[in-house]
Design a protein that fits this description.
Largest sheet: 5 strands, parallel
Number of helices: 12
Shape: elongated
Structural class: alpha/beta
Strand order of the largest sheet: 2-3-4-1-5
Distance between the termini: 75 Å
Order of helices and strands: HHHHHEHEHHEHEHHEH
Radius of gyration: 24 Å
Helix content: 40-55%
Number of domains: 2
CATH topology of the largest domain: Rossmann fold
């Protein structure tokens, strides 16, 4: 069989095996293998490694799209110098995703603009890079979805969907008017995921005020009981990043920098 026919046949095999990246990687490694006198095993290792890397990249891109992040951040982009109350070592430990593997929760508390959402998304992005499924939603948007689903008799389907991601991020807990129905809706996904899959919850409201926010102290206590049982709480005490930018632009002149602790 001629070399041309053999080459064409080799190019056809990856499509049949669904190794979509492999044909693009064939030329370069083949030349390197010839020059470097690679063994067959070394050549095959290089080709399959390229295919695995490409699949991981596609998987991460798809998971990132399905996560519905409003933006993408990484732990390394967090300004620890501006928020000294946040321990860099603790964030690095959280970025190992051990809490996700153990179905534990993370609650991030702090004033508006201090980086709570940044950290939550950064950990979500890190989780996706490790093959973990993630879904991000603000609590106000979630409540709106659950209200609509309840009216359309789709609530059970929505709650089932909220249990699928290995990591569910609920952003801005408390950023809505006091609502008794909200407590009933929020209790469902929190209860169903309890000791089964992880939650990250961000809030600018202290735990003691959740009863007022949810207008139902009993259900608020039940929600907190499940969230906090296996959890880490990260408290951010500092200035808003957004106000810092306004200060730099000369909009504010009376902001004080956060003190080191």
């Amino acid at each position: 069989m001629s070399e041309q026919l053999t080459h064409e046949r080799v190019l056809g095999h990856p499509a049949r095996l669904r190794l979509n990246r492999l044909p693009d990687c064939l030329g370069g490694p083949a030349e390197e293998a010839t020059k470097g006198d690679w063994t067959y095993v070394e050549f095959l290792d290089r080709l399959l490694g390229a295919e695995i890397a490409a699949r991981a990249e596609r998987d991460a891109a798809m998971k990132t799209k399905l996560a519905h992040f409003p933006f993408v951040k990484t732990p390394e982009q967090f300004d620890f110098a501006y928020q000294p109350s946040v321990g860099e070592r603790q964030v690095k430990e959280l970025a190992t995703l051990r809490f996700v593997a153990e179905a534990e929760n993370l609650l991030i508390l702090g004033p508006p603009g201090t980086g709570k959402t940044h950290l939550a998304i950064a950990l979500g992005v890190r989780a996706i890079s490790q093959g973990v499924s993630v879904y991000f939603v603000t609590v106000s948007d979630l409540l709106e979805m659950l209200r609509r689903d309840a009216k359309e008799d789709r609530l059970a389907h929505r709650l089932q969907a909220l249990c699928r991601p290995k990591l569910l991020i609920l952003d801005e807990m408390g950023s809505f008017p006091p609502d008794r129905l909200a407590a009933q809706f929020l209790f469902q996904p929190v209860s169903r995921r309890y000791e089964q899959a992880s939650l990250i919850v961000t809030s600018n409201t202290s735990y003691g005020d959740w009863g007022d926010v949810l207008a139902d102290p009993v259900l608020a206590s039940a929600i907190l009981d499940r969230l906090l049982h296996h959890s880490t709480t990260l408290n951010i005490r500092g200035q808003s990043y957004r106000l810092r930018e306004k200060k730099k632009a000369g909009v504010f002149h009376d902001l004080t920098e956060p003190k080191e602790e």
